[in-house]
């Protein structure tokens, strides 16, 4: 990680505050980094906090190719109340006494939501149904169904069970959970489905993303910290962390930058994107194998 006074070029791992949309964070970063060229990978709901990966300047070219397929979360699920948004942002639509729910029943419900499952995203999610975002349809009071999608929940662990009383006097149950899942998994949909399966309803009251792909919360910085000292993972370092590395000599580097498709070594022939470095460790391009040749995905040199 390096600190910058001029416009940086690389990834910024932000610890997103609650109440900010991912786009709000991008707008903030444009001001901090003094550039319009800022993008983000993997959105995070306004209520949630934690790891949001931003690309600044040339690193925006990396964002679409980063394998951010696995994510880790810490959250709190409230059993006994259902909301219209499946999280604490929405109004309560139903309440039920959850004091009789046993730990055994909770563990059974969690086990049923672990592994490869079919999940129906929340109606207020950003998924498009026939070209229109789901939350827009929901806001306009439209009745519609979202098709279930396959997602993978590789780990769903309940760390603590706390009995509480909600504001409306309902005896509820708060679960502190951690989840490791594939991209596209909705934690609030897990909360909703766990509560529904237990017959008392449920919603998500807090969520913190602690990891996205290889990027962890301990390397993330808050917007306040970044305002004081902009910490950036240089584009070459970011590419090395995320992709296999292929070093080429000066002649091949010239050919590659002139648009020639180089023969790829066998070790990369059937994989995904590969970062190509020239002499002196300069990041030249991101390529992928196509019929044994290197097809450029993004050029940096």
If you had to describe this structure to a student in words, what would you say it looks like?
It is an enzyme of class 5 (isomerase). GO terms for molecular function: tRNA pseudouridine(55) synthase activity. It is built from eight helices and 19 strands. Strands 1, 2, 3, 4, 5, 8, 11, 12, 13, 14 and 15 form an eleven-stranded mixed β-sheet that branches. It is elongated. It has about 300 residues and is α+β, with helices and mostly antiparallel strands. The chain has three domains: about 1-65 and about 215-240, Pseudouridine synthase (2-Layer Sandwich); about 70-210, 2-Layer Sandwich (Pseudouridine synthase), CATH 3.30.2350.10; about 245-300, Roll (Archaeosine Trna-guanine Transglycosylase, Chain: A, domain 4), CATH 2.30.130. About 20% of the residues lie in helices and about 40% in strands. It starts with a strand and ends with a strand.
Distance from N terminus to C terminus (CA atoms, Å) equals 21 Å
Q: Care to count the β-strands? A: 19
Query: How would you name the oligomeric state of the polypeptide chains in this document?
Result: single chain
Helix content: 10-25%
What would the average pLDDT be, to the nearest integer?
A: 91
Q: Can you tell me the CATH topology of the largest domain?
A: Pseudouridine synthase
Describe the sheet with the most strands: 11 strands, mixed
Secondary structure category: alpha+beta
Radius of gyration: 22 Å
- The H/E string reads EEHEEHEEEHEEEHEEHEEHEHEHEEE
Uncertain spans, ≥5 residues at pLDDT below 50? none
CATH superfamily of the largest domain: Pseudouridine synthase
Tally the structural domains. Answer: 3
Shape: elongated
Beta percentage is 35-45%
What is the CATH domain class of the largest domain? Alpha Beta
Individual helix count: 8
CATH architecture label of the largest domain: 2-Layer Sandwich
């Amino acid at each position: 990680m390096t600190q910058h006074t001029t416009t940086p070029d690389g990834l910024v791992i932000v610890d997103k505050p609650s109440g900010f949309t991912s786009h709000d964070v991008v707008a903030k970063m444009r001001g901090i980094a003094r550039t319009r060229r800022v993008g983000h990978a993997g959105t995070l709901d306004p209520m949630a906090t934690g790891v949001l990966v931003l690309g600044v300047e040339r690193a925006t070219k990396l964002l679409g190719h980063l394998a951010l397929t696995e994510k880790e979360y810490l959250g709190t699920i409230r059993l006994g109340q259902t909301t219209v948004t499946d999280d604490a942002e929405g109004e309560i639509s139903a309440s039920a006494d959850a004091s009789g729910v046993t730990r055994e029943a909770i563990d059974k419900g969690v086990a049923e939501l672990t592994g490869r499952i079919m999940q129906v995203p929340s109606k207020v999610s950003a998924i498009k149904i026939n070209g229109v975002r789901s939350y827009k349809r929901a806001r306009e009071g439209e009745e519609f169904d979202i098709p279930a999608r396959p997602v993978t929940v590789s780990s769903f662990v309940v760390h603590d069970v706390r009995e509480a009383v909600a504001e409306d006097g309902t005896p509820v149950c708060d679960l502190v959970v951690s989840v490791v899942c594939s991209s596209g998994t909705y934690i609030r949909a897990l909360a909703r489905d766990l509560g529904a399966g237990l017959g008392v309803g449920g919603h998500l009251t807090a969520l913190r993303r602690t990891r996205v792909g290889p990027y962890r919360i301990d390397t993330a910085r808050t917007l306040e910290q970044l305002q004081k000292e902009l910490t950036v993972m240089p584009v070459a370092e970011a590419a090395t962390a995320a992709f296999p590395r292929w070093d080429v000599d000066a002649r091949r580097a010239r050919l590659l930058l002139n648009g020639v498709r180089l023969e790829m070594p066998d070790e990369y022939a059937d994989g995904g994107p590969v970062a190509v470095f020239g002499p002196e460790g300069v990041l030249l391009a991101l390529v992928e194998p196509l019929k044994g040749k290197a097809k450029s995905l993004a050029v940096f040199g």
